[in-house]
Each structure stands twice: as C-alpha cells, then as structure tokens.
Amino acid sequence: MARKLLKIWLRCLAAKILGKYQPQIVAITGSTGKTSTKEAILAVLRGNAANDKIVGTRGNLNTEFGVTATIINPEFTGTDVQGKIKLELRDIWQLTWRAIQLLAGKLSYPKILVLELAADHPGDIKYFMSFIRPEVGVLTNIGDVHLEFFGSKAELVEEKSLIISHVKPRGLAILNKDDDFSKLISRKTSSRTVFVSTEGETDFWASDLGFGSSGGHFNAMTKNRIRSRIDLPVYGYQFAYAALIALVIGDYFHISWETMAKRLSQLILPSSRFEVIKLGTLAIIDDTYNANPTSVIAALKSLARIGVNRRKIAILGDMRELGSAHAKGHQSVGEYAAKTVDELWVVGEGGALIRRAALQAGLSPNKIREFSVSAIPAILQDNSIVLIKGSRATQMDKVVELIKQQYHERHREDNC
C-alpha cells in the first residue's frame, strides 16, 4: 500500500511540474540499447559540457520511481544500497520539498528532458504516458525480453508501442526499420515518423559500417546523400543504432552535422556495455550489464567483425526473464555462436542450452567448455579476443575480474 501511495504522490508532483514548466521531452524505450541511445542523444544535444537546460535520467533511474524523481529534481541520484538505487525516506522528503519550491515559484528548469523508460512489466509504459507527452518518442527495438511477466509477445509489443502512439501530433517518432514490428507500430501515430537502419536504405541509415583501432565508424546517410562520417570511440554494431537515433534528434533540434559528428566522437558510455579492455595482446569485451537474445547476437556479430585474425572466444551465461521464449532464445544464441566463435564457454542452466544448440549447429565438442563463475577453466592465450555476456543475475562481471586477475598473476610470474 505504501509503495502504491508513493507512486501516486510522485506522479502527481511530476505531472504538475511538467504542466507548469512545459519542457520538451525525449522519451526512449525498447528491449535493448536504451541507455546507450540516451547517452548518445545527450552527447549530441549538449556535448560533454554541463548544461542544466538539457538533462536526462541518470544511471538506472528508468523505473516508475526513478523517472518521476528525475522530473522533480533533474540532479537526483538516489541512495545507493548495495549497488542498487533506492528511494529512502530522506529522498522522498527532499523530492517533495523540491517540488513545492518549483510549484510555488518560477525557478530554473530544463528546456529538454531525455527520459529512459523501463518496460519490465505490463502497464509500465501506460503509467509513464499517463503524465508524460513526448515531443520525441524513440522505440529502439522489441525482442524476447521480460516475457516472463507478459502473457505474450503481442502484449509486449502493444505495451512498448504506447511510447509512439502518445507522441505529440507535431512531434517526432523514431523507429528501427530493422525491427520486425516497426512498420506495424508506425501506424499508431499521426506524428512525423523517421526510420533508422544499419542494414539498408531508409530515412537515416548507416553505410560502410566498420571498426578501426579506436572504435566504430560509418557514413550517416539520408536520401542517398552522405551527410557526415561518424567516428565512435566505442565498438559494436548496436551503437550505430544509438548514434543514428541521436543524429535524427539532433537534426530535429537544428544542430549542425559537423557539431553532431564531433560530439559523437567523444561519446562516453557506462561501463560493462561492450567495453573493450586491452591486456597486452589479449582483449576482453565486458558486456556483462545484461543480456537477452537480441543483444547477445548483436554482440556476437560485433565480436566476429572486430576479431578478424584473432582467436574469438565467447563466454556466455544465462539470459533471464525470457518466459516462454527461454528455450528458443538460448537456442538461437547457441546456433549463432557456432557460426562466429572459435571457442564457446558457458555458465549455468541457460549456458547448457546454448551449448546443446551450438553442438547441433556443428561446433566441435572440444571447442566448448562448461564452468562456474568462480573459476576460469583454462588460460586465455595472447591474441585472443573474449566476449563475456550474461544477465546481471548470473554475475558474469566476476568472470571479467577473474580473467584480469589471471592475466596479471601470469605476467607477474613471467617477470620474476
């Protein structure tokens, strides 16, 4: 009951603040890529400089409480309790007092809010849209995520599509053309709709996508015209989508292509999101923040491309909250891994499903290892590139630390 009352109270305060100050809202949801897309948008709109006129949700404040707290106080960070952001009593009091100040007077407030919206359960986006009317709505993609909580994939699609159907009539809806549901969802809005793609021509698309020594690069295209070369300081095909969406939004807010390209070249993403860590000639890719079939396959695709002429190893753990898609999701990952890696290491029950699918797809049994997160089963050789990915609950970040420890211990011994 207390949680429900708090939810109503914060929504009431947030709605009144939005009604009074009327900021332009960029709202983002999707199965994968929400945070990287939010960070790319913020980078394009404001660069790396502090700008209190353009702010976004911080960290993982994308929940029903985190979003309302951000609207009430854009500088809100919450209370860190064992690595998770919580609302403590003091936070609630401070938010209430801040709301009173904003509503009683005319204080400085952001002109643009970039809000990342989680949709883990039925009704999440409906709740957000009850008090948020986006100027720009972004749906990154829809995959087999959180189906444990939804009755069907159709219900998941319907829930996430609400962010598009609630865009203001003169606003902008952005969809991923490479997603199976984008065309269907585009019919739900009367606003201007823009599609992005890395696979073919559309409104905004990436051509000549590749990777260099310091990150990814592509040509940003509109209507068969190269608008700008985009250099990203991060690796991974998935980040091209984030950059394209940011370019669409920057163009909407009349930012020059030269400025946008420069700002994206300085993009900084949170850790553990396809983060490349170099240990001599050994490279590990820490992608342990979370996992689902869509994001794992995207990571494997990127591994195959940047791992040319290197030994490619994928260390994969369970993917949680897949519901009815649990078996199918792990199977699709195993089949894709069999085509792209030299070795496959797996953890947990889901890892066993990945292993079985990889074997059936033709990966040799001596190329597959099963292990626990507490012990690395073999020494990783130099010139290998290693992808580590799994749902947060599987604690795959421990594997990253074990590999670092193993590397440093081995090189200490070599130097003795």
Describe this structure in words.
The strands form 3 sheets. Strands 2-5-1-6-7-8-9-10-11 form a 9-stranded mixed β-sheet, sandwiched between helices. The model has no long low-confidence stretch (mean pLDDT 92). Helix 10 runs parallel beside helix 11. Strand 9 (204-211) and strand 10 form a beta hairpin. The protein has helices at residues 2-21, 34-46, 64-72, 89-104, 124-129, 153-165, 182-186, 238-252, 257-264, 293-306, 326-340, 348-360, 397-415; strands spanning 24-29, 54-56, 79-81, 84-86, 112-116, 136-139, 172-176, 192-197, 204-211, 216-222, 225-231, 275-279, 282-286, 311-316, 343-347, 368-371, 384-389. The chain is of the alpha/beta class and 416 residues long. The protein is built from 13 helices and 17 strands.
Topology:
Elements: H1 2-21, E1 24-29, H2 34-46, E2 54-56, H3 64-72, E3 79-81, E4 84-86, H4 89-104, E5 112-116, H5 124-129, E6 136-139, H6 153-165, E7 172-176, H7 182-186, E8 192-197, E9 204-211, E10 216-222, E11 225-231, H8 238-252, H9 257-264, E12 275-279, E13 282-286, H10 293-306, E14 311-316, H11 326-340, E15 343-347, H12 348-360, E16 368-371, E17 384-389, H13 397-415
Parallel strand pairs: 1-5, 1-6, 2-5, 6-7, 7-8, 8-9, 13-17, 14-15, 14-17, 15-16
Antiparallel strand pairs: 3-4, 9-10, 10-11, 12-13
Helix pairs in contact: 1-3, 1-4, 2-8, 2-9, 8-9, 10-11, 11-12
